[in-house]
Amino acid sequence: MRLSLVTKKTNEINKYIAYIEELKVLKDGNNFDQTKHTKELQEQIKNLRKTNDILKKDNKAMKDIVDQIKLKLTVEIKHLLNIKDSQIKKSLIKLLDHTLG
Asked: Which ranges of the sequence are coiled-coil (predicted)?
């Protein structure tokens, strides 16, 4: 009777050991997946930061171009407003209303 009880407990212990080993394998595999996923996310973040830096530079360049256009437009408008012809002034005001408005 004692021998069968010991055998039964030994089998139960072996079953738990196998279960623990299975859990370890699953955990290690899960950690591998998480590590892989983390690396992928870090790579995506790195790429997004590079893209963001490029976009910031492009936006700054575009802003500089727009500022140059505004300056040239202001100078030309000032020039045109100094002309005595009222027809030119009216056309200019109409143009400004359409572009600004």
From this structure: 38-65
